[in-house]
From TrEMBL:
Enzymatic class: transferase
Residues of the full protein shown: 238 to 548 of 548
Subcellular localization(s) per the UniProt record: Cytoplasm
Protein name: Phosphoenolpyruvate-protein phosphotransferase
Membrane-spanning intervals of the chain: none
A single MF term (Gene Ontology): metal ion binding
Lineage: Bacteria, Bacillati, Actinomycetota, Actinomycetes, Actinomycetales
């Protein structure tokens, strides 16, 4: 089928034999909620909250934040909304949170590690998410970006629970989290893989540079094997494992991520029809064979080429 037909695909999020897949959307503001619903999202798998913080010289008030979060939650009554706490630093620096000039900002104080240095900002955000959640009927989950180990996961879990949030998880985007995945799953309720940063840190390839090719592809067998490790840990723990990085928007990679153990996928709203098309072209068992072959490939290109012949 040509691209235009795939982009207009109206079928359900399911494999060709009918097995359903939970398919959510990534949004960066409350406005995008409507587009996500239009494109058939079952909920929100990644609500990036940076936009609330970007326009001012200091952190927004509890009231201002609650209003923004409520605007999204109110559109998702009875549906899941996974909110990510502020991910400042590196490509998204904030003057009041990331004052220092760092030689390698991607390896510096960013995400949870910068937020935890400012407990009042962190606490206000969690309180605002919690207040907005209580005022809506959405099933609100919260997660922290750039978690490195189970210590941080359990610290964040405690903070979010104290703010009254029910379901608390962390992102897997630093490879260390995949290596200690069992410990991390024991410390929180769910994990969501950010394949953009996970690939950058695993392959030592800056996501902002063009032209590093195979090093920047989530098809790399090293990335796929790490996803598999997380999938196996999720199954042992009996807890959900999402994928919310760009990899989930690739219609051929999407079924493979499910085969490797992801229990939900989340992608940009406009990518959702094509992801549903990709799922509809194969079965879990075919995707499992493709995943196994891709894990044995020697680089990203070979992994992709081999997988496509098996899907
Ligand atoms: C990721 O790193 O894959 C991710 C989803 O987060 P962001 O792209 O916002 O860094
Ligand atoms: Mg990230």
């Amino acid at each position: 089928k040509n691209r235009a037909e795939r982009l207009a695909f109206q079928g359900p999020a399911a494999f060709s034999d009918g097995e359903a897949v939970e398919l959510l959307a990534n949004v960066g503001s409350a406005n995008e909620g409507a587009i996500a619903l239009e494109q058939g999202a079952q909920g929100i798998g990644l609500f990036r909250t940076e936009f609330v913080f970007l326009d001012s010289d200091n952190a927004p008030s509890l009231e201002a934040q609650t209003k923004e979060y409520r605007a999204l939650f109110s559109q998702f009554s009875g549906k899941k909304v996974v909110v990510r706490t502020l991910d400042a630093g590196a490509d998204k620096p904030l003057p009041y949170l990331n004052p220092a000039i760092e030689p390698n900002p991607a390896l510096g104080e960013r995400g949870y590690r910068s937020l935890s240095k400012y407990p009042h900002i962190s606490r206000t955000q969690l309180d605002a998410i919690s207040a907005a959640a209580r005022e809506s009927n959405a099933d609100v989950w919260v997660m922290a970006p750039m978690i490195a180990d189970a210590r941080e996961a359990s610290q964040f879990y405690g903070e979010a629970k104290e703010a009254g949030l029910n379901v608390v998880g962390v992102m897997a985007e630093i490879p260390s989290v995949a290596i200690v995945a069992d410990q991390v799953f024991s410390s929180c309720d769910f994990v969501s893989i950010g394949t953009n940063d996970l690939t950058q840190y695993l392959m030592a390839a800056d996501r902002l540079l063009g032209g590093l090719g195979s090093y920047q592809s989530p098809w790399h067998p090293a990335v796929l094997r790490l996803v598999k490790m997380l999938g196996e840990a999720a199954e042992r723990a009996g807890k959900p494992l999402g994928v919310c990085g760009e990899a989930a928007a690739d219609p051929h990679l999407a079924p493979i991520l499910i085969a490797l153990g992801a229990t939900s996928l989340s992608a940009a709203p406009t990518a959702l029809p094509e992801v549903r098309w990709g799922l509809s072209q194969t079965t879990r068992s075919k995707a499992q064979q493709a995943a196994e072959a891709a894990c044995e490939a020697m680089d990203a290109n070979e992994a992709r080429r081999t997988a496509l012949t098996l899907l």
